[in-house]
Predict the structure.
Amino acid sequence: MTDAYVVGVDMIKFGRFPEKTVPQIGAESALLALDDCGLGIQDMEALYCGNLMQASAMVGQRILQEIGQTGIPVVNVSNACATGATAFREAWASVKAGLYDIVLAVGVEQMGKGLLGGGGPAKGIPKEGLFGSGTMPAVFAEAGMEHARKYGTTFEQFAKVSVKNHHHSTMNPKAMYQIETPLDTVMNAEMISYPNTKLMCSVNVDGSAAAVIATEKKARELGLMGRAVKVRASVLTSDRWQERDLVMPDVNTCTREASAKAYEMAGVGPEDIDLVELHDCFATAEILHYENLGLCGDGEAGRMIDDGEVALGGRTPVNVSGGLLSKGHPLGATGIANIYEVSTHLRGEAGERQVQGARIGMTHVIGLGSACGIHILEKAA
Amino acid sequence: MTDAYVVGVDMIKFGRFPEKTVPQIGAESALLALDDCGLGIQDMEALYCGNLMQASAMVGQRILQEIGQTGIPVVNVSNACATGATAFREAWASVKAGLYDIVLAVGVEQMGKGLLGGGGPAKGIPKEGLFGSGTMPAVFAEAGMEHARKYGTTFEQFAKVSVKNHHHSTMNPKAMYQIETPLDTVMNAEMISYPNTKLMCSVNVDGSAAAVIATEKKARELGLMGRAVKVRASVLTSDRWQERDLVMPDVNTCTREASAKAYEMAGVGPEDIDLVELHDCFATAEILHYENLGLCGDGEAGRMIDDGEVALGGRTPVNVSGGLLSKGHPLGATGIANIYEVSTHLRGEAGERQVQGARIGMTHVIGLGSACGIHILEKAA
């Protein structure tokens, strides 16, 4: 199989756009990604669209109505919070397979509209109050508390994740927020589900991100290899059956399986990764994923945040974009926004927040239900 | 790229199952398709799930919860009435590409539940009454009337499509209905939107269908080539921009483009096709698609139904399963149910309704919005 490259990639500044439609929001990032590589929609051979909340509504085709209908195949995918990563992966697979030479992947979400309504507990989950057992905040609070019980991880260590990611976002003009949140502010914010305060929960925003993916041959023909980013690994996993409390989904297993497969596919190890955009839907989740992704050994995540190893300038900067905690988390867009962030560093175009000398980066998303998507990207030679 | 084969395929008898969940209905056909080739869910390397009305709800993963969670990638797709065909196509692409050796595709729908509610006009379409302008019945009635104006096609000719398909379904134990509908019964049924009476509209049912797709190497290793069906062409298209009434989507263009591409990909012509399962969502639609698929010249569709060329025993039998008009149309399942029907004839296992000597068959679906999916299948050598 041929290699596949990200040749154009971009995202809109995340925010709240109740006056726009989902296709309009999606079209904006599609046009930005096309502009990024100097191409037009007529150059694309297929569109893979990821959207969660309006997944029944032909969002991909409606994006083409906004920017140009050319008769190309459109595939609409949804996969909870892994929706954008899944759309990117299907696009990657189609190019890797040689079905197409160049395709577009778009992820888009408008929160507070559509099926899920953006915030309330999903149907079928016991409704024991918005933040009670079985809801997202409870699931990740309980997972964090289990880590605390096993390894002595402290409230302060969890809170430091949010301080770090908010600090990172002050250097990212596309993040929803660009404000510092000192440790005492984070720890004293409204308690949502211990140990996560309101500033330790991901931000509910609208957004979209898009990527143009091409074969090596096509990228060379178009003169786009200079800023191209190679996809070294693309992995998707789902939960295995296991003995467990049915109300408490496992948030660790499928990430561990996906990261092991991704390292194997890319032929690299955690020590080779220069930056990571991981799924910090809650501050507790980021701590768990340091270990799930093999960035440190089990029980060492608290030390890792204390030592600044995951901050910009540290050994393996994590969520330099500001992450879901400050950049924001428009569900179906997040997976491709991660690809944008890592690609921007590999291209050396991240400005003030640039991870110096970044050569290989990783993106990670996890959707409960479940789907875990991991990509490893490398600067084209 | 390697060839890809359908090695297992089946569907449930379509019906109405309000007491079941969507994942339960989907799991039933998945197990039937696995049984068809003597494999288990642990043998599958990925799952591609098509569902329209609950597209946000991780239907694929929930099917695995019913039959066995093995950690495999799950991709949930939706594409209006082309949803099942799109899921099958993504599964085919993954095998064709060499990403996986063997995968499962499932299409499932439970009507009257979920986002669209099953029947009412979709959001964003002018609500001029359930059967008024802009609704599905009106779109296909108007397209039929345009054909009548141009070519003199008669009410009786449109009605004969329904007589034929209902007759076919009397030989299909998996169809929703197995009843003859004589011409006067069809013509005197409640008028929905002229010229389509109630018996000329597709049947709103629950259903699911599933297929196991494998590389040639894997099919041989497993000893499954004897009943295997080769996928000779898989094509997906969407609408091109054109000058047209925005309320009246084009129901012809993307089918013509898809069929031309499918014939080219398969290296065959309409004269090589031994049977067709096409998208008879309304009787008028079937008439249009004889021409759109190149089964006859423009303006000859009326003659084709009069002469019995498209009936069982005719030159190119169409919708021998009973079609959407009598077998039923569970949106996300229909594309894979078509694959089941054609494969069953190519295997010589269609019993009373067998198309004698069938060697090559075509399936066609079209979803407004738009997506057209066409597959050409051939008996493995």
Q: What stands out?
A: Chain A has two domains: 4-116+205-228, 136-203+231-379. Chain A is about 35% helix and 20% strand. Residues 136-151 of chain A form the longest helix (16 residues).
